[in-house]
Amino acid sequence: EELDAGNAGGGSSTRQGDEASFNGKPMPTYEYNIGNCPDGVGDSAKEVPCAPENLAQICSKYSGEGLLSLCLDACIPSFCCIHDAPPATNTIAPSCSTDVNCPQYAYCYIAWWKLHDTIGPATQLQLEQNDDFFDLDADFVNGDVTSSLFYREMLFHHFDNSNEIVRLGTEPFNDTVNIFNSDLIFLNETYWNTTI
Question: Which among 28, 72, 143, 168 has most CB atoms closer than 10 A?
Fold first, then answer.
C-alpha cells in the first residue's frame, strides 16, 4: 500500500514493508528516488553511477550485513553529491549535487559523517570506534593521501577555489619539484574562518 507517491523529481516515497512489522502492522519503509536506475537507463549523463542495490543494507549499523568499509567503497562515487563546491572554481572537488542519481546514495550519510568526525582540522580524522559496524582503524588513512582522487575531493570540497588552495599550499620539495602540503592549509588557523 503506497503512503506517499512523491517519488518523482528527486523526491522519495514511503511504502508499507512486507518483511518488517510492529505490533502486527507493516512498518513503513522509506525509499529514495532511483534517478535513472535501473530500467535500462543507467548511469546519469553527468557522473554519478547507479548505486548498488544493497546500499541500504551495507550502510546500516543494524542490518547485520553493514560495515563502514563496504559502505564507503560503494559510496565513494557519490561524494560530490553531498557538498556545494562550485564546479567553475573548484576543479578538484566540483559538486554534482543536482545529479539525478544522487538521492540513491542518501544511505551513505553514515560514511560521510564518519569521514568528517575529526579532532580539529579535516586532516585529523577520528576513524576508530568501538562498534562492529565501524571496522576501519587509524591506519586506513595513512600518510599523504593527496594522490588519491577521493581523498583530494574529500579535502578540497571545503573550498570555493581549488586553484588558490593549491597555490597557497604548495612548497618546494627540492630545487626542481614543488609539492602540495595540506598541513600548510589545514593546520594554519588563518584559513579556518576564511572563505577561499
Answer: 72
